Amino acid sequence: MFKKMAVMLVMTLVLGAAAQADDNATMTAEEFEASLKFQKGAIVLPGGMATLNIPDSFRYLDSEDTERVLVEAWGNPSGEGTLGMLFPADVNPTSENGWGIVITYEEDGYVSDKDADAIDYDDLLKEMRDAVAERNKERQAQGYQTVDLVGWAAKPHYDKEQHKLHWAKELSFGADREHTLNYNIRVLGRRGVLVLNAVSAIGQMETVAAQMRTVLAFTDFNTGFRYADYDAKTDKKAAYGIAALVAGGVAAKAGLFTKLIALLLAAKKLVIVAVLGLGAFIMNLFKRKKA
Known about the structure:
Strand 11 (164-173) and strand 12 (180-188) form a beta hairpin. The chain is globular, with a radius of gyration of 19 Å. The strands form five sheets. Strands 7-8-9-13-12-11-10 form a seven-stranded antiparallel β-sheet, sandwiched between helices. The chain has a three-stranded antiparallel β-sheet with strand order 5-6-14. The chain has a two-stranded antiparallel ribbon with strand order 1-2. Helices cover 22% and strands 29% of the residues. The longest helix is centred in the middle third of the chain and has 21 residues, at 121-141. The protein has one domain (3-31, 40-282). It contains six helices and 16 strands.
């Protein structure tokens, strides 16, 4: 059986009391997908800061249906606060090879890209690996599964004209033979960064990379929220730059950029970090429960 991040596919979705009046109600994967309200075309994200001009090859779920996928179908803690989710049009969220892209927004201010050309991503990767290795010692002592940063699945690339950054990491969890792909997109704006994260099996790298390039092309901030709209006299500036977006902006803001990696599990060996950055733990929005 194909395993995605050490979790077997749950083919029958058991809906909780909050989602159904009948605690014993069940829904098949096909019924669940049919109940989702997929959208295409020009989608203005909540808050009005950005628009997705979604082609026929993709489909979008709003934040409410995204919550259903993350919690009811994939067995995550609440993903409340997302701006929605994207899926390739031919991918069923509950299928064996199902994967999606969670959209969020970090309003930490204008992120300067002055450091973009000077970043040595090989050195940055080494720092990230060292930090992960140190933290794994503590994880093992606490009885948690280790999480290793294998390397770049795609080295970070920043488009200065479009102000878009993307990269991919290969991760391994404990003794799992199947490695995990974490593909990241960051679109820089006037007051913050649009965050798009996808997680799949590493064997899907070629497919995911091609799809994420398409997503890059149809995702943009609206006028008034664009990077070029930044006003140094009135707008807040972020406390970190491009390198910290790759390694973990949260740590940079806390002054722990080169030393700390916080790895936190919602449950031992069950819900595991999917998005791993230096000094930053981003809640797993992609993990599925074991059958």
